[in-house]
């Protein structure tokens, strides 16, 4: 679940304070966790760059190190604590922020030497801590920040965070207690940020929040104006506005509420990508009720059939939990049957693990680890077979892709059906001399395996053609 950003200092340095007065102060950054945490890191770095700080690529170059932590599950907590320990041992001056910062006692019990602990999306507190331990030396003639801010993703795609927090009370999750209730950004602010990103060369916007389809509920869907047109602060109008920018728009963390149906026609028209990332979590109504999942009473299979009727090219990805407390063999069989009927395109799975402070910890019938492991293996075997069939059906098709990376004799790209980092890739293995990260290309799919495709390059695509 947790991943480290490219700003993570990897070399083995000693703290470098020599010549600190003769150069701008430098901050090292370790970013852990989900894309929402990555956006938090980008916002902190943008503010620090605006104040004259530089981002240090190594521990050796840094004057202070900030660790943005994840605290969603126990494995993420352990990784965060290990990362803090590594930063302390390899540098010594460490500020901690992020989700685990909402439980400072966990951090300070193991790492009492940290300089400061702040909570999630506490941007001002983090910047204030940096000021306290490394005062800024701003030079308005030298410290220029691009209008789109500092980003930790490749130049051609960016995460667009539309809200903080969550109003759901899922029994296995502690995000609301760490990040608070839903706080949506006004729609005009989101659209202006998206516009700045596309003007800077971004070709794909990945829309994220804790519950993207609940966007604007806290603001009572307040209307705002953008380029002379009124948009309500709501999910559908957000998709409609982003669809005006002429780039790929990918929607993540969407719950299957009935109003999501209204965005499907925009996908059929390619105003936004025909791709939905929906955390279904389970297929048994009884398990979903114990999980306290929103929309658990909805007939999601009927909804999926309707979506595919209106947009046949729709790609659906989801994640599931096996071994949730009380899960019986019959309920697990319901999940497998649901998965078989849903025929999702991309599927991930986690074995349930207790999270400190989660209501699910008190549920009876915790599933033994060996049973969890056996169910996980059966689920992934079913999911792999389904993925193989889905990808094999794409052999012979021509599609547009965006190149993410060129390494050696292979280019790794993605079509509209693959999100970066979490889905498979389209490998291009011949005639790649003209390819580079961020370019569009047309390919013919010539082979498929369980999770990835292989394509034959047919043409490079100009910007105007790519955005048609």
Walk me through the topology:
Blueprint: E1 26-31, H1 35-50, E2 54-56, E3 64-69, H2 74-90, E4 94-98, H3 104-110, E5 116-117, H4 123-133, E6 157-161, E7 163-164, H5 175-179, E8 183-184, H6 187-199, E9 204-208, E10 223-226, E11 229-232, H7 235-242, E12 248-251, H8 264-268, E13 275-277, H9 285-291, H10 300-310, E14 315-322, H11 329-342, E15 346-351, H12 369-392, E16 398-407, E17 410-414, E18 426-428, E19 440-448, E20 453-461, H13 463-466
Parallel strand pairs: 1-2, 1-3, 3-4, 4-5, 6-9, 9-12, 13-14, 14-15, 18-20
Antiparallel strand pairs: 7-8, 10-11, 16-17, 16-19, 17-18, 19-20
Helix pairs in contact: 1-4, 6-7, 11-12
Rg result: 23 Å
Uncertain parts:
1-21, 140-145, 463-468
Task: Let me know the largest β-sheet.
Answer: 5 strands, parallel
Through-space gap between termini: 35 Å
Give the helix level as a range of percent.
25-40%
Structural class: alpha/beta
Strand content: 15-25%
Mean pLDDT: 86
- Strand adjacency order, main sheet: 2-1-3-4-5
Count of individual beta strands? 20
Helices, by number, come to 13
Report the principal-axis shape. Answer: globular
* Multimeric state: single chain
Characteristic key phrases:
about 475 residues; alpha/beta; 13 helices; about 30% helix; disordered N terminus; disordered C terminus
Explain what the structure shows.
With 468 residues, this protein is an alpha/beta fold. It has helices spanning 35-50, 74-90, 104-110, 123-133, 175-179, 187-199, 235-242, 264-268, 285-291, 300-310, 329-342, 369-392, 463-466, and strands at 26-31, 54-56, 64-69, 94-98, 116-117, 157-161, 163-164, 183-184, 204-208, 223-226, 229-232, 248-251, 275-277, 315-322, 346-351, 398-407, 410-414, 426-428, 440-448, 453-461. The strands form six sheets. A five-stranded parallel beta sheet has the order 2-1-3-4-5, with helices on both faces. A five-stranded mixed beta barrel has the order 16-17-18-20-19. β16 and β17 (410-414) form a beta hairpin.
């Amino acid at each position: 679940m947790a991943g480290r950003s490219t700003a993570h200092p990897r070399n083995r340095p000693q703290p470098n304070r020599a010549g600190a007065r003769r150069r701008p102060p430098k901050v090292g950054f370790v970013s852990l966790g989900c894309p929402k945490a990555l956006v938090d890191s980008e916002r902190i770095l943008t503010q620090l760059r605006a104040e004259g700080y530089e981002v240090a690529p190594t521990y050796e170059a840094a004057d202070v190190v900030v660790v943005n932590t994840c605290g969603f599950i126990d494995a993420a907590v352990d990784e965060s604590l290990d990362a803090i320990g590594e930063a302390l041992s390899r540098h010594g001056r460490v500020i901690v922020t992020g989700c685990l910062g909402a439980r400072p006692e966990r951090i300070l019990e193991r790492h009492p030497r940290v300089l400061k602990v702040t909570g999630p999306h506490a941007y001002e507190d983090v910047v204030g801590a940096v000021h306290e331990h490394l005062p800024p030396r701003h030079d308005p003639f030298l410290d220029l920040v691009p209008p789109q801010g500092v980003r930790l993703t490749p130049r051609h795609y960016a995460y667009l965070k539309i809200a903080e927090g969550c109003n759901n009370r899922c029994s296995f999750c502690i995000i609301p207690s760490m990040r608070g209730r839903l706080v949506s950004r006004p729609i005009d602010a989101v659209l202006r940020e998206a516009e700045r990103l596309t003007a800077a060369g971004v070709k794909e916007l990945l829309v994220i929040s804790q519950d993207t389809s609940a966007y604007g509920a806290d603001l009572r869907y307040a209307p705002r104006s953008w380029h002379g047109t009124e948009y309500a602060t709501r999910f559908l109008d957000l998709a409609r506005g982003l669809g005006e920018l002429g780039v790929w728009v990918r929607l993540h963390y969407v719950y299957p509420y009935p109003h999501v149906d209204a965005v499907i026609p925009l996908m059929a028209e390619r105003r936004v990508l025909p791709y939905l990332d929906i955390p279904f979590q389970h297929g048994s109504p009884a398990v979903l009720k114990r999980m306290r999942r929103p929309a658990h009473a909805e007939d999601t299979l009927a909804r999926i059939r309707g979506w595919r009727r209106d947009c046949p090219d729709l790609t659906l990805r989801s994640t599931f939990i096996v071994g949730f407390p009380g899960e019986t063999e019959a309920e697990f069989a319901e999940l497998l049957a649901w998965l078989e009927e849903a025929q999702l395109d991309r599927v991930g799975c986690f074995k349930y693990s207790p999270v400190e402070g989660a209501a699910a910890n008190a549920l009876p019938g915790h599933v033994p680890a060996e049973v969890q492991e056996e169910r996980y293996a059966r689920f992934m075997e079913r999911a792999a077979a389904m993925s193989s069939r889905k990808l094999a059906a794409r052999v012979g098709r021509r599609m547009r892709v965006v190149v993410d990376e060129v390494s050696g004799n292979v280019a790794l790209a993605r079509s509209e059906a693959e999100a970066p980092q979490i889905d498979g890739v389209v490998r291009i293995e011949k005639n790649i001399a003209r390819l580079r990260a961020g370019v569009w290309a047309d390919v013919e799919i010539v082979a498929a395996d369980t999770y990835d495709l292989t394509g034959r390059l047919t043409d490079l695509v100009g910007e105007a053609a790519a955005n048609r």
